[in-house]
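Ticket #4471: structure output looks truncated?

Reporter: J.K.
Steps to reproduce: submitted the chain below (201 residues) through the standard prediction queue, then opened the result file.
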Amino acid sequence: MKRNYGEYFNVAHIELQSRIYGPGTRYVIWLQGCSLACEGCWNTEMWSFKAKDLIHRETLLKQILSATDIKGITILGGEPLHQESNLLWLLKKIRRQTNLTIFVFTGFEEQELQSQGLLGQLLEVCDMLAVGRYISSQRNTQQQWIGSNNQCILYSANSREKQKQQSVNEVEICINKDSSVRMLGFPNEELIRWVNVNSSK
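Returned output as attached by the reporter:
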């Protein structure tokens, strides 16, 4: 289900620097909108296709190119491939103009991407591609970057990224300017309770 926002991305959230969504420090973009609606998804607020933060693709490209101290970019969601045209445009520009490594997450299966004619296009521009629905009954937070055992990470033939997955669960705790706290990754219940208690002090 493709969604057309013209030359604008419908963006849910951006982290200027993160170390848990791929190798090294990365510029991370969550795109808004997903029709896959995996049971147990923890980003349900990103399912809606209603415009949240529309950013022109040229503006987003400039923001990425001006970012400092990053190794690469990661794009997830939501479902990035619902904004396929702008996504491929952006990835091709980044690939040609920078040395940043590219990591894209999609809930589509490898076979689906192949049948849609997208797998080859993605592997031409991505260094890493995480594929597969999230399946809550196969949840596994100890396999870096992906959330269930059925999912896998593909490395393109021309990948510039050599770091492989480790058996680890990574979480980032971000303190905002207003002293509120955000957690990224897969925090367990104990960590969530600890953060809630300490952030209220």
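Triage note (M.O.): checked the attachment and the full token line is present. The longest strand covers residues 8-18.
Status: closed, working as intended.
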